[in-house]
Fold Phosphoribosylformylglycinamidine synthase subunit PurQ.
Amino acid sequence: MKFGVVLFPGSNCDKDAEYAVNFLGQSCEMLWHKEKNFKGIDCIILPGGFSYGDYLRAGAIARFAPIMERVVEFAQKGGLVMGICNGFQILTEVGLLPGVLIRNKNLRFVCDIVPIRVENTEVPYTYNLKKGDILKLPIAHGEGNYYIDNKGLEELKKNNQIVFSYLDNPNGSVENIAGIVNIKGNVLGMMPHPERGVEKVLGSEDGMKILKSVINWWGEKNGKL
Ligand SMILES: NC(=O)CC[C@H](N)C(=O)O
């Protein structure tokens, strides 16, 4: 399986994503934000960081990067797109996911390893997991407070789009939301960092369960297991 990691000026988890993908035996291509095209990629990762310095609002400028037009097209055709932290912020800004990420409730940057619960196992990203499974993953963000209005929240619930929720809400997110998918389930946005939790020495191996899920789902679908 081939992953593509988009590199924006200010990204800082691109190498972690590449490392995690390679660690799981898969190939990875780095894609510069100015690229207008990419080929042969099975899953795009929009990594964490401070794209364009988080100016205006995190993700608000990155959504206009040349590569994003192609990422949107890829997602609309059913391609797998995973936005992690800043990547999640970019996905809401570009309209692939509903809602918005605003400043943490306490107005402070939070950096920790926190438990999250798996709420939906009908998407590629939780293929190997069970509903109610608890994963411990790193978080590191200043704008991780997921907001959506009541009508939007009802839609999310109705369509089973909430994939991960916090046990101890660290940022004020509505309904403890830590990660959601689009209606089709091919686009995931999550604030915690699975790519930074693939080895015990990093404080968590649980991120591996999410990345392995994608790889196993894709392998099964393409007859490569
Ligand atoms: N690791 C990240 O992607 C966090 C940075 C993010 N832009 C923030 O809200 O602070």
Observations:
- The radius of gyration is 16 Å.
- The chain has one domain: 2-222.
- The longest strand covers residues 110-118.
- Residues 111 and 140 are 4 Å apart (CA to CA).
